[in-house]
């Protein structure tokens, strides 16, 4: 077996794909993702005799043969319906019947979920291209299906003796990961000039009454600004102070394209990244070990301006951002991964835009970083996706009292930790202001404190997680 051939092949697993599967690239990609989640780097080989894994409908040749739905199933994925096999919801095309038993094709299922094929089935997507409650029919609010399949594969491979030990999922002593991220959507609550500048846009978009209200907000803002400290910026400062006290670090995503810029959306942010106060604040964070990434604008993908928004970021903060998250999870709704190809092209190592607004869970079947694939063009996107598991708004909508929401949060953390996954949460920078979501941010601080004190949990920034997944975990 290849895994025994020397230390340079540690954590490698050779796999063979049946020649009858004509389009081998997506199949190979899906096997590689499954293996990576399981703890090995996949190596595609041409001889089935050399392989630890064989993906074929023919009689077993490799040490482990994966159930294979065959070329026809791969060719006719569209139209698949959710079916439950062994307690897992999978696409009907991935069900393999063998001797009266139903088995799951883990490769096709992985491809189906990680490339978001389920999102184009009836009732899943909400405008603008983000799944809503309808995603529940695919079981992804209950469990990370792809992670489940990867764990089964891990056990099968270890039991077979066909491979060496699996690479550790997380650093030594850690069995799961927690990643705290903040989107900066609102920097100042009191911004008299900002509101004043938006009056003409408001007039054009929503009429004179709305424009008049904006004018009024400008006047009230001017008074409040003189009277008190801004609660939005104060909330962000409180996050940093809280995290410093716990000894943990987070990432904040900052926008460089606002609603007054060309080809923007009225829902883009209202602040200007080049403000000296924000600059200084971010520089202090970077110095202290926090991560700052780009919060790309809603129309960024539409006007293909990732380079431009990134250049602005570099000019403002003096470094190239390595992570991107789009405002409103905005990716091309007809081809999400095409946007990720553009994100990679602008020099990003990872994206973290595969989140949801109305619900929380596992949008693409995993909580762990994976390498996304663009199914429309049949190419790898060239970066990592770190999928957010829960956004603050979604948790707020999930219950009508903070006690209930705390329980929901704990249950979600339990699911992720049970699978040894990565609990990436998106808590907005202004969430600690008591006027936001009835003070949900404050009500959840104890939960984060509890996680930070869990010795089995690795609390890390996205950047640290991506470095771990790219390189560190594969070193022997
Ligand atoms: Zn945002």
Low-confidence stretches: 1-7
| The CATH H-level homologous superfamily of the largest domain | Glycoside hydrolase/deacetylase
What is the highest CATH level, the class of the largest domain? Answer: Alpha Beta
Query: Based on CA inertia axes, which overall geometry fits?
Result: globular
The bound ligands are: zinc ion
Mean pLDDT: 93
Radius of gyration: 23 Å
From the 3D structure, determine the CATH topology of the largest domain: TIM Barrel
Structural class of the helices, strands and pairings?
Answer: alpha/beta
CATH architecture of the largest domain: Alpha-Beta Barrel
Helix content: 25-40%
Instruction: Give the strand tally.
Output: 21
Tally of distinct domains: 3
Instruction: Summarize the main sheet.
Output: 9 strands, parallel
In short:
Strand 9 (125-126) and strand 10 (130-131) form a beta hairpin. This protein has three domains: 12-160, no CATH class; 176-189 and 230-475, Glycoside hydrolase/deacetylase (TIM Barrel), CATH 3.20.20.370; 195-226, no CATH class. Helix 3 (106-114) packs antiparallel against helix 4 (145-160).
Task: Report on the architecture of this protein.
This protein has three domains: 12-160, no CATH class; 176-189 and 230-475, Alpha-Beta Barrel (TIM Barrel); 195-226, no CATH class. Helix content is 37%, strand content 16%. It is built from 15 helices and 21 strands. β12 (251-254), α8 and β13 (291-296) form a beta-alpha-beta unit. The structure holds zinc ion (ZN). Residues 183, 185, 295, 327 line the site of zinc ion.
């Amino acid at each position: 077996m290849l895994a025994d051939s020397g230390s340079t092949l540690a954590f490698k697993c050779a796999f063979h794909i049946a020649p009858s599967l004509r389009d081998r690239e997506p199949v190979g990609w899906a096997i590689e993702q499954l293996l990576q989640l399981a703890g090995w780097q996949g190596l595609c080989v041409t001889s089935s005799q050399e392989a630890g894994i064989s993906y074929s409908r023919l009689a077993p040749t490799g040490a482990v043969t994966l159930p294979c739905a065959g070329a026809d199933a791969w060719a006719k994925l569209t139209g698949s319906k959710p079916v439950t096999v062994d307690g897992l919801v999978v696409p009907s095309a991935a069900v393999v019947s063998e001797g009266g038993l139903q088995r799951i094709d883990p490769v096709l299922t992985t491809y189906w979920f990680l490339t978001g094929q389920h999102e184009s089935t009836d009732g899943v997507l909400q405008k603008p291209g983000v799944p809503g409650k309808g995603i529940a029919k695919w079981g992804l609010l209950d469990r990370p299906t792809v992670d489940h399949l990867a764990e089964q594969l891990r056990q099968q491979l270890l039991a077979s003796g066909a491979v060496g030990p699996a690479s550790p999922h997380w650093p030594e002593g850690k069995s799961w990961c927690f990643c705290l991220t903040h989107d900066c959507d609102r920097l100042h609550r009191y911004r008299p000039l900002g509101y004043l500048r938006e009056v003409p846009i408001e007039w054009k978009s929503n009429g004179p009454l709305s424009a008049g209200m904006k004018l009024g907000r400008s006047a009230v803002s001017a008074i409040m600004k003189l009277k008190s400290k801004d609660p939005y910026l104060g909330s962000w400062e409180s996050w940093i102070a809280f995290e410093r006290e716990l000894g943990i670090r987070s990432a904040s995503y900052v926008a460089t394209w606002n609603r007054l810029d060309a080809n923007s959306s009225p829902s883009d942010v209202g602040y200007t990244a080049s403000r000296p106060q924000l600059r200084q604040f971010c520089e202090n964070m970077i110095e202290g070990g926090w991560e700052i990434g780009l919060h790309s604008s809603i129309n960024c993908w539409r006007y293909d301006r990732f380079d431009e928004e990134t250049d602005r970021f570099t000019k403002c903060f003096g470094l190239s951002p390595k992570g991107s998250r789009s405002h409103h999870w905005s990716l091309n709704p007809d081809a999400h991964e095409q946007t990720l190809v553009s994100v990679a092209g602008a020099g990003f190592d990872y994206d973290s835009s595969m989140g949801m607004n109305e619900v929380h869970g596992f949008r693409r079947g995993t909580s762990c970083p994976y390498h996304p694939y663009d199914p429309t063009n049949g190419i790898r996107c060239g970066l990592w996706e770190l999928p957010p598991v829960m956004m603050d708004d979604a948790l707020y909508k999930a219950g009508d009292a903070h006690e209930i929401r705390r329980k929901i949060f704990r249950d979600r953390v339990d699911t992720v930790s049970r699978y040894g996954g990565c609990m990436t949460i998106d808590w907005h920078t202004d969430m600690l202001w008591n006027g936001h979501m009835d003070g949900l941010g404050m009500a959840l601080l104890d939960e984060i404190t509890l996680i930070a004190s869990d010795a089995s949990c690795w609390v890390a920034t996205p950047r640290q997680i991506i470095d771990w997944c790219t390189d560190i975990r594969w070193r022997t």
